[in-house]
Structures are given as C-alpha cells and as structure tokens.
Amino acid sequence: MEEEFDIRPYIEVILSKWYWIVGGAIIAGLVAFAVSSFLTPSYEATALVVVTQPTEIVEFDPRIRSIDDTEPITVFPEIALSDELILELLPQINSMDPEIQSVADVRKLLEANSGADPNLLRLTVTYKDPEKTSEIANLWANLFVIRANQVYSNSGSKQLLFYEQRAEEAATKLDAAEQTLIEFEARNRTAILDNQLASLKQIQSDYLDEQRQIILLSQDVQALRDQLAQQPDRTNITFADQLVALSLQAKAYGLEEIPIQFQWNSADSLVASDRSEQLAFLDGLGETLTIRAAQAEEALSELEPQILAVQTEKQIGDTESNQVQRDYTLAEETYIALTSRVEAERIASQDVNNRVKLISETTPPDKPVSPRRLTNTVLAMVVGLMIGLGVVFLIVWYKDLYPPQAEQQAQNQNE
C-alpha cells in the first residue's frame, strides 16, 4: 500500500513560525538595502558612431574593383577594443583617475556593440563619475573614428601612391616586353618555314600520286601481257593490242595527253606479227615502272625527315612566338588596368568625406545604472523568504525522521 504524504505538519509549522519566516525576509532585504547604499554608484554613457557607404565607386577597369561594398562592418567592435586604440586612450583616462594604469583596467570600463543596423556602433562607458563617464566615452569615440578611417579609407594619398608605383613598374615591364617582341620578330622564320613546309608537302603529295599511278599502270601492263600470252595464235597479234600497249607506254612516260592518230586502208592492217617482241616490250615496260616505283619510294623516304625537321623548327618558333606574344599582351593589359586605376584613385582622392563618422556624442548621465537598491532589496527579501521556508521544511522533515524521546515512548505504549 502506498504511503500518503501528509502536508499538514508543514502548514502548521509555517503558521506557527510565520514571524520567523517573514522576519528573516525583512532582515535580508534590509541588509541588501544597506549594502547597496554603501556601494559606489556606476554611471553609463553611450556615444554613437555610423559607418557610411559610398554613393558611387569610380572604376575605369572591372579587373581592379573596389571592395567598399563588401567591407567587414562586424570588425569595428574589435577595432574599438584593440590594444593600440586603448593605449592611446589610457594616458587621458589616467589623468582623470590615477588608479587606472593598464589596458586591462581601461577595457573593464568599455563596451562596443553593433546597433540594430550593423552600420551603427554603440560605444558604451561605465564609470563611477557621471561627468568623467561622458568625457571618456566622447574621447574614445573620437579616437575610434580617426583610427577606423585610417584603416579602411581607400581614397588617401597612400593608396594613390601605391597604384602610381605599380603603374610605373608595369610601364617598365611593358617596355621590356615590347623590346623582346621586336627582337624576336627580327629573327622570326615562321613564315619562311611555312612556305618550305608547304612546298615539301606538295612534293610529297606528287610522289604519292605518282606511286598510285604506277601501281595502276603496272596492273594494266600485267593484264595485257597475260592476255597476249593466253592467245592461241603464238605469232600474230592484233593491232588493237599494239595500240593498247602504246597507250600504256604513253601513260608511263606522261604522254597520255598527246593525241595519237592512226590510219589504215584495210582490215589486214589491223593484224601484226611478232607477239614475242610485244611480250618483251611489255616486260621492259613493267621493269621500267618497277624502277620508277622504287625511285618514288626512295624520294618519299628522303622527304620525311626533311618535313619533320621543318615542322620541329616551325613548332619551336611558334612556341616562342606565343610566349613572347603572351608576355607582351599581359604586360599591356596590366599597364592599361593600373593606369586606369590611378586615374580612378585621383578622382576618388578628391572626396575628403570619411567613411566612419561620430553622429552623437554623449552627455553626463543623470541616474546611476548600479547599484539598484530597490531591485536588490526585493531580490534579497525573496531569497530570505525561500531560505526561511526551506529551514522550516527541514525541521519538520528531521522531526519526522527522528522523533523526540517522549513522543517515541508514547508511541510505543500506544502500540
């Protein structure tokens, strides 16, 4: 059977000892009020700084563009709390309060946060004196504005000088690239090599065409010879066969375009004898074609290394030409881009407006932000009340766990 929790003893004790609980809460509140009254009050002052965006950006060349539109606004709080800036602020604060002697002491007084708009920066100072609090905040804000403009301003004379120096270096490199290009063109043989290579390739093409014609003629000669050898009449051959043989001979010696005229008076004139002589003639013509084929092959073999050598020399020249041309083009484009940037910086340098501006200095605060006596008193009373209730509950729990001896004896008698 589950045990039931009896809350009545706790309520009875609270009702019987209420004055102790309430009294403890009142005492805690009075102590908190007294302690808060003796604490040194702290005042808070805030100066506002805004980071403006440029209305227009001068760019003559898109390859070199301004990064103002991507400026990291979020780094400004870090700059405001940097050691270098605080070291500039330290002597002035030390003259107000000699107890503040280090960067860590100054940093305890400062707080930098971005506002609702990331372009707005809140510089807050917490200090014990209202007049000095506002003075420190205004000093800090003015030093920060000067420092931030020095870091992120792109329109100063240093920026212009930087691009002018780069433009001078680019002009020197461009002059050197132009001179190199002139010297190369004075010894550039690529056009000559192009002509030589074209001529050699044409000769090679002619020999290849001749080889093809020789192969076809050899096949025709062999076919005519086989035809004559298979004829039953071993002495007489027709004049037509002689005419074909003469035509093959004309083609073999490049005479295929010379007109040949024949005239005969009777059919007998179309028959001739000496087939053996005709076969011998065809054999000789075949040997001649074989020799010419070998000569063409030898000529092609000699042409190949010449073509390769000219191609190699031409490729070397083309590679060097491309390299020299690339260097010249790069030097020219770099020079044009930098000179355009110099002109843009000269125009931008005429804009004396700063990007970071102090839009609101602070005035001495009227009321301290700490200590908050009323808030501390109420919190202390609540804590005292909770502690009193906890003590009461602890007493009841202890009595239930370890009852007094008289009550224990009475309980035993009842059992």
Walk me through what this model shows.
It is elongated, with a radius of gyration of 56 Å. The chain starts with 7 loop residues before the first helix and ends with a helix. The model is unreliable at 67-72 and 255-272 (pLDDT under 50). Helices cover 67% and strands 7% of the residues. Helix 7 packs antiparallel against helix 10 and helix 8 packs antiparallel against helix 9 (239-252). With 415 residues, the chain is an alpha+beta fold. It has twelve helices and six strands. A hairpin with a 5-residue loop joins strand 2 (110-114) and strand 3 (120-127). The strands form two sheets. The chain has a four-stranded antiparallel beta sheet. Strands 4-5 form a two-stranded antiparallel ribbon.
